[in-house]
Amino acid sequence: MNIVRFMLQNRTQVLELTSEHLWLVGLSTALAVLIGVPLGILISRRTHLNKPVLASANIIQTIPSLALFGFLLPVPWLGARSERLAILALTLYALLPIIRNTFTGIRGVDPAVVEAGRGMGLTESQILFQVQLPLAVSVILSGIRVAIVISVGLATIAAAIGAGGLGEFIFRGLAMVDNRVILAGAIPAAILALLADLGVGWLESRLRPR
Q: What's the pLDDT tens digit per position in 101-134?
């Protein structure tokens, strides 16, 4: 119960760091969606771009998070604001599941349905927006769901460069060798990841084609 007492005593700071965490995750995920979904659509149309785009996103995933922060730190505009650096890094990490699922979802639409749309006189853009994307939306949301959960976890590392978030408690607790402080950051982060997973999962099931 010590952890509960500690969190209640420091509830203002817990709420403040949680809001910072949500800001980092929300903005980076939104940017990843704005970049990843169009890229997924592009490689579904231009299949020769499939391997280089997915390979690039895969390579980013293999870079350890602290190493990526370190690589980006010397960049003038980014390094001047740790928040910008953290948002860029989280956006890069979130791209792979969004690009891959957008590509998979669109390519997984039944060809007979696409041909039926063409037979009705739909243009390629109409087929994309009226046929393929509505049928692929649950698969795309599945990728966004994975991206959010990844971002919630990785955002705790952003505290190492002074970007704030619940990682502040975790790193502070490690320095103090105090499990209460570590858990004050880890528990809210785990709850955020669980709520995001359940929320997007519910939306995904609601939008899944019947």
A: 999 999 888 888 888 888 888 888 888 888 888 8
Q: Which two tokens stand for residue 194?
A: 């669980």
Residue with tokens 């880890």: 186
Task: Identify the residue whose tokens are 């891959």.
Answer: 100
Amino acid at 122: L
Q: What angle do CA 198, 130, 138 make, to 5 degrees?
A: 15
Question: What is the spatial distance between Cα 61 and Cα 139, in angstroms, rounded to a whole number?
Answer: 20
Express the helix, strand and coil content of the chain in percent, nearest 5 each.
85, 0, 15
For residues 161 and 146, what is the distance between their CA atoms, to the nearest angstrom? Answer: 24
Contact 160, 66 (CB under 8 A): yes
Q: Which structure tokens are listed for 88?
A: 């860029």
DSSP 189: H
* Cα–Cα nearest to 86, from 62, 70, 102: 70
Q: What does the alpha-carbon distance between residue 66 and residue 200 come to, in Å, rounded to a whole number?
A: 28
